[in-house]
Amino acid sequence: MSGSGENPGGQGRPGGRGNAGRNGQGGSGVSGGRGRGSGGSGDASRRNAKGRERNRGPQRSFTEQAPSQRTRRADPARLVAFEVLRAVAQEDAYANLVLPARIRHHHLDKRDAGFATELSYGALRSQGTYDAILARCVDRPLDQLDPAVLDALRIGVHQLLAMRVPAHAALDQTVGLARAVIGAGPSALINAVLRKVTARTLDEWLDLLVAGETDDTKIASLRYAHPEWIVRAMRQSLVAHGRPATEINALLEADNAAPVVNLVALPGLGSLEEALETGARPGELVEGSALSSGGDLGRLASVRAGTTRVQDVGSQLVARALAAVDLGPAADAAGGPTAAVSPEARLDLCAGPGGKAALLGALAHQRGATLLANEPAPHRAKLVGQALAAVPHESWQVRTGDGRDVGTEQPGGFDRVLVDVPCTGLGALRRRPESRWRRSPKDIADLGPLQRELLASALAAVRPGGVVAYVTCSPHPAETSAVVADALRKRDDLELLDAGAALDAVSLTGNLGAGHELTAQLWPHVHHTDAMFLALIKKTS
User: Residue 42 pLDDT more than 90?
Assistant: First the structure.
């Protein structure tokens, strides 16, 4: 569940306040034409600076919206943002995968790439709130607008309300984008609507939207740009994991903050030296991590070699916690100690796309252990192999197949098993800006059976005395503690280990405060990580 999440957008309310101003290109300025003189006569008083005659009343003057001054081309950075929004809407694409490709395609420099990133992520993240604002400015239901027009409007609103872009430049460039890629007719509508948006600041719009509203969930949904069901789910999740419900606004605000890019140097293989020399700073939570200042990380030799990787520190912590658990002496199937100690066999049951597998593989190699990385989708299995390529090949193997079959095919075959189950990803909303509008409560119900089957397979695959790490990138109790509780009820040979203590043992602080009733939950607003859940389940001998 890791991701680079490079997003210069600001923090807090929808979209935040951007840190990159852009005044537009290709004609955003004030008109150079002159108005008609008050007492002049003859043709000179009816002509502009270029000698063109105007049949306008004496109160009319040239503006930046005069046809001759309007931008008629798409600014490349804004075009990238528009293409990202279109891909998300039309192809169900992921912004963090589409955006880098579009930036390369349009040859954006670092400044323009940052602008496009902020604009894309901000417009997607705050879509629900921006749509509520637009609904007050459009004379028809938004679902009756051409989807491309609506995406252009969202891009315009984010520039006007949440970025330090002059209003005239945001208007001119968004209209120019529309004229270039949608058409002249829709561009007139976009111009009219965005002019209405400029009548208020973001704070004023938010106050208007919540005026008279008494439902705290609806108010938080509008102010922090989360669907109402997610606001309720996050509040429930806080309580379920031992935190006060009053932290809900802080959590939602953290979801809207630009995530810092986390790096990990694969133990014994990678180095952070080059990253630190180019502006990164050492990570504060886990050994071998760094926080990047951004830029093109692909230029770092260690990143190109795969020995240094982009990975959220929450993912690093849960992988290291599993690898560091003291298993004690090995036991055979009958419950007695084994006569000889063989190298540990480790399993990553849901390995794609390979971030945690690479870290687990490097840790296994240090201890002379081996890792089997399983992934059902062939294209993702290929990504897993690529992620593991930097680890000596004798230490790992990739299996392409259904993880639910591993427990049957290789019962008791592994000492440590990571089962990072498919989930709603509610814990990584800051890195996946479109996800909050794409998910629904039905997804939680639909994923439940698969999560339970994968955990059952992991428990069958681990040997007596071994440990299974059940991990999700979601704090929702239906995906976390409820799944674990169901597994414990069905068997009498399982024991929960203290996951909070295990995280503390591998952290630099030694006191994360993530534990609750032997499980552990990390939080964006507390730990500045994705909201990773960890349960460590030992199979007793």
Answer: no
How far, in Å, CA of 312 to CA of 326, rounded? 25
- Please name the residue that has the structure tokens 């309720």: 232
Cβ 445 vs Cβ 497: under 8 Å: no
Give the residue among 481, 430, 518 at the shortest CA–CA distance from 95. 430
350 counts as catalytic: no
Comparing CA positions, the residue from 196, 256, 249 lying closest to residue 17 is: 256
**Please, where are the H alpha helices in 126-197?**
127-135, 147-162, 167-181, 184-197
3-class SS string, 43-71: HHHHECCCCCECCCCCCCCCCCCCHHHCC
Q: What is the gyration radius of the CA atoms in the chain, in angstroms? A: 27
Q: Which domains does the chain have, with CATH numbers?
A: 1-25+67-225 (1.10.940.10), 265-311 (no CATH), 312-539 (3.40.50.150)
CA nearest neighbour of 461 among 401, 398, 410: 410
Residue of 52 and 463 predicted with greater confidence: 463
Q: Can you give the pLDDT at residue 234? A: 98
Predicted local distance difference test score (pLDDT) of residue 378: 96
**CA 78/CA 108 separation, integer angstroms:** 11
What is the total residue count of the chain?
A: 541
Alpha helices in 242-308 (DSSP H): 248-255, 273-277, 301-305
| Annotated active-site residue in 137, 350, 423, 473 | 473
Q: Is pLDDT above 50 for 32?
A: no
Q: How far does CA 463 lie from the centroid of its chain?
A: 36
Question: What one-letter code names the amino acid at 142?
Answer: L
Q: In the numeric block, which tokens belong to residue 491? A: 């068997």
Query: Which residues fall within 8 angstroms of residue 489, CB to CB, at 6 or more apart?
Result: none
The distance from CA 226 to its chain's CA centroid, rounded to whole angstroms, is 14
Report, as an integer, the average pLDDT of 122-140.
97
Give the CA count within 13 Å in the CB-facing half-sphere of 367: 20
List of E strands, 426-493:
462-472
Cβ-count burial 33-61 (b if 16+ within 10 Å, e if not): beebeeeeeeeeeeebeeeeebeeeeeee
**pTM for this prediction:** 0.85
Amino acid (one-letter) located at 60: R
pLDDT given for residue 171 in this prediction: 96
Task: Say how far apart CA 354 and CA 356 lie, in whole Å.
Answer: 6
* Among 111, 123, 101, CA closest to 77: 111
Q: Which residue has the tokens 């990385």?
A: 373
Whole-angstrom distance, CA of residue 450 vs CA of residue 421? 8
Angstrom distance (rounded) from CA 177 to CA 27: 12
φ, ψ (nearest 5 deg) of residue 23: -95, 5
